[in-house]
What does this fold into?
Amino acid sequence: MSETVVPIRDMSKAEWETRVDLAACFRLVDLYGWSDMLATHLSARIPGTEDHFLINPVGMMFDEMTASCLVKVDIDGNVLSDSEFGINPAGYTIHSAVHMGREDAGCVMHTHTAAGLGVATQQDGLLPLTQMALAVIAQTSYHDYEGPAFDLGERERLIADLGENNVLVLRNHGLLTVGRTVAEAFVWMFRAERACRFQLSFQQAGAKAVEIPQAVQDISIERTKKAISATGHRPIGQFEWPALMRKLDRENPGYAV
It folds into this structure.
C-alpha cells in the first residue's frame, strides 16, 4: 500500500481505513476510464455510525483524490468535516437514498460511462447474451430517469427500485452499484461495466446472436450466485481488492494521505 499518514485527530481508525479504501477506489475508477471529470460520485458509510458517510468534494478530479480530502456528511446533508469544496446536491440525493434504505450499503458507486449509458438508454437494458451478463443480471434492477437528482422525493423510488440487488441501471443516466465494502462495490461495477461493453461490442457487429436457452440462463445465474457468495470459491471483491491496490500503488500512489 502507498505510504500512509497518521489519521486526522479525533478520527477513528475505522474511519481512516474507509477513507483510504474510498480514495483508492476513486483513483481506480479513473485508471479504468470510468470517471467523468468532476461528475459522478462514490460514497462509503463510516463504520460504527448509522448516518455518516464519506463522499467526494466537488472540485477535485478522481485521479487526485486522497483519504483526507473526502467530505463527511450525514443523511440530512450536513457537512461534518472541514473542506474548501462543497458537495454536489444530486450526488447527495442518490447516495443518501441508498445509505438510508440499505443497512448493508457500505459503499455506493455511480458512473457515467459510454458502455453503461449505451445500455442504460436501451429499452431492454442488459441482455442475456454472455456469461458475464448473466452474472450481473442476477443482481440488476432498473430506475427510470426523473431528471437531475435534486428532488429528495426521488430517494424513496430509487431505493424501492434497487431492492436487495447490488446493481441499478439508472435509465438514460448510468450505472450504480452497492457493496458491503468498497471492494465489493468496485468489483460489481467492474462486472456491470464489462457486461455492458460486451453487449455493445456484439451489437456493433450487426451479427445474429447465438441465444442462450432459458434453462441454461437459470443454471448459469444460480451457479454464479453460489460462486461469488461468502461460502463460494470467489467471494466478490475479496481476492480482487488486494491485487487492485497493488496495481494502484504501481500506477498512481499517494491516495493514503
